[in-house]
Amino acid sequence: MAKRPSSEGYEGWDDYAPFYDWENARTLGRRDVPFWRHIALNAGGPVLELGCGTGRIALPLGRAGVPLVGIDRSEPMLARARRRVARTRVGRPVRLVRGDIRALPFPGAAFSLVLAPYGVLQSLLRERDLAATLAAVHGVLQPGGMFGVELVADLPSWDEYRQRVSLRGWRRRKGGTHVTLVETVKQDRARHLTIFEQEFTERRGRRRTSRTFALKFRTLSVPQMARRLAKAGFEVTATLGDYRGAPWDSRAEVWIILAKRTI
Fold it and tell me: Can you state the angle between helices 75-87 and 13-26, rounded to 10 degrees?
């Protein structure tokens, strides 16, 4: 039986950590990495990634020579990223910090670029949390520095369903386990939330273990986020609809906003 959905957007990610890379390899993969690598290599200075997780983006950018700091609240996610960093022998070392993106623990104007990839800001479920994070990003960005934001595209249009087998496959871990993801999707339209209740079951021989948790995302559109960025002291310079730079529209599968600090 699924747990009651959490009240904080960061909850659930500790439980998700063992399965995050396995699932993403079968969904998003690394399609966004070349885009963020290009942006970061042209930033001209240090880069901060919000919600760096297991290092899916941070490590390829570090290997490419980007001076990067990654911050995440989840210690289990960061533990996996640290192991990856320890195995990396080329490029720039990536610094990993455990912390809250609503109160960034860095000096003012420390970064030329801040990245918020694939829905990180949508895990901020309350307006005050998003406003605090945008203010914190503004503070650590250099004047004229760039802020790159990706939203999960059109969350309100996701069909609701219950107990659907979404993914199956093998995971390499201590001889290999077979993993099944059973997922329930709910829309809380009154609070503008999309809720993913997930149950991951691992099977090795006759042994089965399951982990159940919920992830919540706020259903913000590109225009809504652009207005909040403008209010926080950013100028939107581009809205993109794919990782090759095509212009955004509401039907695009990718929603990216690039903005610069103006004040």
Answer: 50
CB atoms within 10 A of CB 76: 16
Handedness of CA 21, 22, 27, 31 (dihedral sign): positive
Q: What is the pTM of this model?
A: 0.93
> How far is the C-alpha of 171 from the C-alpha of 173, rounded, in Å?
6
54 vs 132: CA distance, rounded Å: 24
| Lookup: tokens for 146 | 């760039």
- Token readout for 103 is 């109160």
Provide CB contacts within 8 A for 10, sequence distance 6+.
73, 74, 123
For residue 83, what is the DSSP state?
H
Q: Report the side by side order of strands in the sheet with 68-72.
A: 95-98, 68-72, 47-50, 111-116, 141-151, 255-261, 234-240
**Mean pLDDT value of segment 121-137:** 97
Highest mean pLDDT (candidates 2-6, 52-56, 201-205)? 52-56
DSSP secondary structure string, 109-177?
T-EEEEEE-TTGGGG--SHHHHHHHHHHHHHHEEEEEEEEEEEPTTGGGSPPEEEEEEEEEEE-STT-E
Distance of CA 225 to CAs 3, 6, 8, 40, 122, Å? Answer: 30, 23, 20, 22, 10
Confidence bin at 132 (pLDDT 50/70/90): very high
